[in-house]
Amino acid sequence: MPQELMYQIALTRIPLIGDVIIKKLLEHFGSAGEIFKAKKYALERIETVGALRASALLNFRDFEAVEAEMAFLEKYRIQPLFFRDPGYPQRLLHCYDSPAMLYYKGHASLNPPRMVSIVGTRHPSVYGRSVCEALVKDLAAAGITIVSGLAYGIDIIAHKAALKAGIPTIGVLAHGLDRIYPAAHKQIATDMLEQGGLLTDYSSQTLPDRQNFPKRNRIVAGICDATIVIESGIRGGSLITADLANGYNREVLCVPGRIQDIQSAGCNQLIQQNKAVLLRDAADVLALMGWEEKARPETPPAVQPSLFPALTEAEQAIMALFREKPQRHLEELYLQTRLSGSQVAVAVFNLEMQSLLRSLPGQRYERV
Predict the structure, then answer these.
(1) Under DSSP, is residue 364 helix (H, G, I), strand (E, B) or coil?
(2) Phi and psi at residue 228, in whole multiples of 5°?
């Protein structure tokens, strides 16, 4: 394996040097190798690095452990994916705190056209189980890759349903790839390697410690186009994933439950607070994401252009986004058009006046 990979892995093992700092260092020095050659004063001058982090980097000496990790990766054919590598999940790149390094074993693409995460309680009801199985079965017809966390409950039900339906499924782990947790899911994990894969940002010898799971959830949320929550209590870990997905401007959908059901209290709350779309079936997912239209030949818009004045460049840029997906959050328009807040506001207002867009609750807009 190349020497640059050794330095990339080394960066991830240095105390105080997290994913955001690694990316900032790469911006300044160009490569991981050049970072380790840098002088202390050059490191300290970089914003948010400072003296403590510069010292931690310069004092790193444990390259023997890095070489052992590289040998482990080669022996078990695990693919290291630095954030600059072509195979790195491109959706994840848009998340500011995405891992600088990932480790992947499997055959499924991490950049498929359609990717959805399914999360939920570890103790699902019969209702939750049946909804999950039926949902995955129906989503399979649309060629969607299913992502979850290989945990008990909804996670493993989603993985099994995906395997049964013959679609790719990715398990995101909160530990290294030298183990499977829980051990009861080892066979399922093995089956997933052929039809999907296992992904983590933790190196080997990393135990499934409690604090790793919320951090793992950022990958589950960020790697997908949408996150689906099936049964979660008010304090369920799945709500962390839903919150992260909202923060990344991803779609969040929740399966509702009876108001008396503790297992559905978290889902019902997200729907009530307009932090999630109510999900009834797979058709709701396809409609929300605009994937139904992509499966059919594109047809020209029903609006006659001659009825409206020519669109400005800003309005054209915004409408181009809505051709890809019929519903968008206002924040998406800021991020993807790179227009100023005032430009977006004026353009959206004009498009509403021309009946090309209509507003929805929660700062969302829909193509008419």
Answers:
(1) strand
(2) -110, 130
pLDDT digits (tens, 9 = 90+) for 71-105: 999 999 999 999 999 999 999 998 989 999 999 99
Q: Which two tokens stand for residue 99?
A: 């891992």
pLDDT at 201: 97
pLDDT band at 297 (very low <50, low <70, confident <90, very high): very low
Decide: helix, strand or coil at residue 367: strand
State the burial class of residue 342 (Cβ atoms within 10 Å of its Cβ: 0-12, 13-18, 19+): exposed
Helix-then-strand count for the chain, H and E = 18, 12
One-character DSSP codes across 108-132:
S-SS-S-EEEEEE-SS--HHHHHHH
pLDDT band at residue 363, thresholds of 50, 70 and 90?
confident
Judging by beta carbons within 10 Å of its beta carbon (0-12, 13-18, 19+), is residue 361 exposed, middle or buried? exposed
Residue 182 has which token pair?
A: 């829980």
What residue spans of 232-325 are helical by DSSP H? 237-247, 265-272, 282-289, 291-294, 313-324
Domains (ranges, CATH) in the chain?
A: 1-70 (1.10.150), 103-289 (3.40.50.450), 313-367 (1.10.10.10)
Which among 207, 122, 121, 137 has a CA at the least distance from the CA of 169?
Answer: 137
